[in-house]
């Protein structure tokens, strides 16, 4: 290398360093919040609706949103610093999954009926689904795993679903390590992904979830203590049990596209019927009561009858993650007045 | 100063020598190492944040993203052979490699300028892969031709260690930037572009395009002579051995998936699996390369593949402890250290100078097709007979492949010495 090349290289290195530092500095000084103060708006008020939602900023839908409660047609912001991308709450225990203050990592908070953070759990990927069993014993969290990128393709995703004991905030199981059976024989493949857990209201050890493998999506039922699952039927994603445990609302994929229609199936017979919702819904549905569904398309919260009759209606604008509030939740809502 | 001399000491095994061998690596190899390191920092920065970016900024649904990849698979293999031959034919390995590095750098610029549609990103990812396919064979030929035959494994070891250092640093740089400027993916893309540009500049300004072992033959090699390489008995034996060994090796990505099914601890620990393996690879690539140059490349290469038995063994244990896990990762890192650089060194020593890039391109393609077949077979076996049985089948296949490879490699080496 002659001295001229050396000089040119030195100049190029210096230029690159200066440009990189300047760009990062400008970016760092710019707006870089992870939480939005956007507020949801009430759409069509339903009588006696006790609902928790998470606010979504229509311009920046991936920022953490504050938690609000819809109480007799009024929206109330909840006190505290709780803000997230996914929220669920039952029997005095809640999970709030969102971006960590660093803006790079993700964390989940386990909170109590005063909305105080009791445990913080580092997440290994992007928040996807979360549920708490109706008795408040277990919680389930699904994340999209990233960071495996330099081993596989940079755009390949997989999911990871963990079960928490809500009181201690400890992980007590991971669905990827459970045994699976299909038609009475062991079932396993390298591309197994699990997501969308829903707990049996009569027995929190018993749950349903989605198993995805090779383009198929199965409804599985499982036992936390037994660490096993059984395949029930095909074509079911993000199951959600009704409060009486008799029906499962789910999203049904149209073709191989990222396009879903909502359906409801009977747990005893596995027969199902469509819901009067025209939009594609990528959400784990929530039940307002045994006859009414609530769900979000990522921007607004809608409601529709579970029996397939009628039509859908906007319940809350600029909100996602609807949660039916049980007794403990209603006390929470009223105590915040 | 930088030359590795083919001294008598190198011919005589001197494993127990008291004076440690001084690491002498041709300057060209070190510079190519820097080029690869800078380019890998650039690529891994983007690869690390791309899934986050797609979901965070573009609002893509993660499970719908599978369609983006798959576009480049297969095409990359053909590109490697073609660019290798082009580099030999025009006797311009540096320029052809530069084209590959340049294409990837342009891809990064495109990401900054137009990376806001999912289709656009798919095209850019494909672009990046094509660039990688183009540069691999001529770059390996430059490494080989810049080194003496006696120091080839060391030279490739140095290059692979620097390359893997870049792959480790990339994610750190990307997360560092996002920590300073949360959610500013544009800053990551801009800095990535600068690293890629710097890589091209280092290549253009410091790498010697006509290294000392470069062919002085005034006649450009014909396509026929390049195709004839696969009929060369020495090289053909190496290719068959390499194909068998790579088919019997389970890819590291699948091994991690297997480990994840067995280990019951905090998921936050998982990213450490890759880090530990990469650090072991990085730490051992150079000393293992030196060892291969001193005691022979075939025993080191075969020992490297034999390390996979430890990896397979840990996948067969019912419940894994931390010790078994660490042992598995050290074995996996050691496997990479003993094979990634030693395999091209074996080929580089026997290939004619004027067909280095063509031959190395063919070898890389054979190994990558073997790995692809291996992944497909392992996935199918896992589904059909379960993880345990699939691992047992692969362990048996590996034993067979090694038993087959040893005589082939020994014969190929003997023929190389005689010829």
Spell out the blueprint of helices and strands.
The complex is a heterodimer of chains A (337) and B (419).
Chain A lengths: L2 H27 L11 E2 L7 E6 L9 E7 L2 E4 L5 E2 L1 E5 L2 E7 L6 E7 L4 E7 L1 E8 L5 E8 L12 E8 L4 E5 L4 E4 L2 E2 L6 E8 L2 E11 L2 E8 L4 E7 L2 E5 L5 E7 L6 E7 L5 E3 L11 E4 L2 E5 L4 E5 L7 E5 L1 E6 L2 H9 L2
Parallel strand pairs in A: 14-19
Antiparallel strand pairs in A: 1-27, 2-3, 2-28, 3-4, 3-5, 6-7, 7-8, 8-9, 10-11, 11-12, 12-13, 14-15, 16-17, 17-18, 18-19, 20-21, 21-22, 22-23, 24-25, 25-26, 26-27
Chain B lengths: L7 H4 L15 H30 L18 H15 L3 H22 L3 H29 L5 H29 L4 H22 L16 H5 L5 H15 L4 H11 L8 H25 L1 H20 L5 H18 L2 H9 L5 H30 L1 H32 L1
- Judging from the principal axes of the Cα atoms, what is the shape of chain A? globular
- Structural class from helices and strands of chain A? mainly beta
What is the CA–CA distance across the termini of chain B? 30 Å
The proportion of residues in beta strands of chain A is over 45%
Shape of chain B: globular
Supply the number of structural domains of chain B: 2
Tally of strands of chain A: 28
Oligomer: heterodimer
Q: Provide mean pLDDT of chain A, rounded.
A: 88
Provide the CATH superfamily of the largest domain in chain B. Answer: MFS general substrate transporter like domains
Q: Between the first and last Cα atoms of chain A, what is the distance in angstroms?
A: 75 Å
Descriptive account of the structure:
The complex is a heterodimer of chains A (337) and B (419). With 337 residues, chain A is mainly β. Chain A has one domain (38-335): 6 Propeller (Neuraminidase). Helix content of chain A is 11%, strand content 48%. Chain A has two helices and 28 strands. Chain A has helices spanning 3-29, 327-335; strands spanning 41-42, 50-55, 65-71, 74-77, 83-84, 86-90, 93-99, 106-112, 117-123, 125-132, 138-145, 158-165, 170-174, 179-182, 185-186, 193-200, 203-213, 216-223, 228-234, 237-241, 247-253, 260-266, 272-274, 286-289, 292-296, 301-305, 313-317, 319-324. In chain A, strands 15-14-19-18-17-16 form a six-stranded mixed beta sheet, with no helix packed on it. By secondary structure, chain B is mainly alpha-helical. Chain B has two domains: 24-212, MFS general substrate transporter like domains (Growth Hormone, Chain: A, Up-down Bundle), CATH 1.20.1250.20; 222-419, Up-down Bundle (Growth Hormone, Chain: A). Chain B is built from 16 helices and no strands. In chain B, helix 5 crosses helix 14 (342-350) and helix 11 crosses helix 13. The longest helix of chain B is centred in the last third of the chain and has 32 residues, at 387-418. Chain B starts with 7 loop residues before the first helix and ends with a helix. Mean pLDDT of chain B is 85; it is low at 1-20 and 62-71. Classes of the chains: A mainly beta (337), B mainly alpha (419). The interface between A and B is large, with 58 and 68 residues.
């Amino acid at each position: 290398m002659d001295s001229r090349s050396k000089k040119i290289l030195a100049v190029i290195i210096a230029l690159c360093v200066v440009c990189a530092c300047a760009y990062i500095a400008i970016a760092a000084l710019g707006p870089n919040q992870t939480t939005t103060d956007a507020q949801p708006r009430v759409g069509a008020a339903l009588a006696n609706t006790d609902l928790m939602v998470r606010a979504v900023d229509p311009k920046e839908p991936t920022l953490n949103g504050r938690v609000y409660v819809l109480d007799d047609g009024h929206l109330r912001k909840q006190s505290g610093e709780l803000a997230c991308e996914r929220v669920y709450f039952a029997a005095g225990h809640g999970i709030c999954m969102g971006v960590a203050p660093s803006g790079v990592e993700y964390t989940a908070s386990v909170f109590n009926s005063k909305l105080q953070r009791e445990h913080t759990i580092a997440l290994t990927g992007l928040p996807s689904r979360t549920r708490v069993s109706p008795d408040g014993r277990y919680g389930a969290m699904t994340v999209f795993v990233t960071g495996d990128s330099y081993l596989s393709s940079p755009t390949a995703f997989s999911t990871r679903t963990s079960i928490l004991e809500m009181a201690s905030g400890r992980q007590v199981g991971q669905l990827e390590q459970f045994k699976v059976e299909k038609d009475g024989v062991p079932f396993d493949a390298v591309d197994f992904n699990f997501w969308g857990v829903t707990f049996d209201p009569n027995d929190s050890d018993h749950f349903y979830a989605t198993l995805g493998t090779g383009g198929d999506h199965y409804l599985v039922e499982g036992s936390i203590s037994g660490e096993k699952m059984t395949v029930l039927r095909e074509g079911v994603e993000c199951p959600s049990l009704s409060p009486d445990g008799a029906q499962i609302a789910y999203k049904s994929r149209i073709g191989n596209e990222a396009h879903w229609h909502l359906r409801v199936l009977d747990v005893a017979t596995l027969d199902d019927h469509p819901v009067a919702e025209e939009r594609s819904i990528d959400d784990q549905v929530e039940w307002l009561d045994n006859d009414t569904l609530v769900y979000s398309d990522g921007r607004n919260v809608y409601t529709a009858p579970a029996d397939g009759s009628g039509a859908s209606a906007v319940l809350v604008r600029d909100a996602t993650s609807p949660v039916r509030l049980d007794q403990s939740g209603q006390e929470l809502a009223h105590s915040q007045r | 100063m930088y030359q590795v001399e083919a001294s008598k000491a190198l011919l005589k095994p001197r494993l127990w020598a008291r004076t440690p061998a001084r690491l002498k690596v041709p300057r060209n190899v070190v510079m190519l190492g820097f080029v690869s390191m800078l380019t890998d920092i650039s690529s891994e920065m983007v690869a690390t944040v791309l899934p986050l970016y797609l979901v965070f900024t573009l609002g893509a649904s993660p499970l719908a993203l599978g369609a983006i990849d798959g576009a480049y698979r297969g095409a990359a293999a053909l590109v490697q052979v073609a660019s290798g031959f082009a580099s030999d034919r025009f006797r311009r390995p540096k320029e052809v490699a530069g084209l590959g590095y340049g294409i990837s750098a342009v891809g990064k610029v495109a990401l900054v300028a137009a990376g806001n549609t999912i289709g656009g990103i798919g095209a850019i990812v494909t672009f990046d892969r094509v660039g990688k396919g183009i540069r691999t064979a001529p770059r390996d030929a430059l490494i080989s031709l810049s080194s003496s035959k006696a120091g080839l494994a060391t030279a490739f070891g140095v290059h692979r260690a620097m390359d893997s250092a870049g792959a480790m640093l990339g994610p750190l740089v990307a997360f560092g930037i996002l920590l300073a400027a949360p959610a500013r993916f544009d800053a990551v893309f801009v800095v990535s572009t600068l690293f890629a540009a710097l890589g091209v500049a280092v290549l253009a300004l410091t790498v010697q395009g006509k290294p000392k072992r470069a062919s002085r033959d005034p006649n450009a090699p014909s396509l026929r002579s390049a195709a004839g390489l696969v009929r060369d008995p020495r090289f053909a034996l190496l290719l068959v051995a390499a194909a068998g060994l790579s088919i019997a090796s389970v890819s590291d990505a699948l091994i991690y998936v297997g480990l994840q099914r067995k280990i019951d601890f905090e998921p936050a620990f998982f990213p450490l699996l890759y880090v530990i393996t990469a650090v072991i690879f990085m730490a051992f690539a150079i000393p293992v390369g030196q060892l291969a140059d001193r005691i022979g490349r075939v025993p080191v290469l075969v020992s490297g593949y034999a390390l996979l038995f430890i990896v397979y063994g840990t996948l067969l244990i019912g419940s894994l402890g931390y010790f078994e896990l660490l042992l598995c990762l050290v074995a996996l890192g050691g496997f990479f250290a003993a094979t990634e650089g030693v395999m091209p060194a074996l080929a580089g020593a026997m290939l004619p100078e004027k067909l280095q890039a063509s031959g190395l391109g063919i070898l890389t393609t054979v190994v990558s097709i073997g790995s692809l077949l291996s992944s497909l077979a392992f996935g199918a076996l896992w589904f059909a007979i379960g993880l345990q049985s699939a691992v047992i089948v692969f362990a048996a296949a590996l034993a067979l492949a090694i038993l087959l490879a040893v005589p082939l490699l020994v014969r190929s080496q003997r023929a190389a010495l005689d010829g």
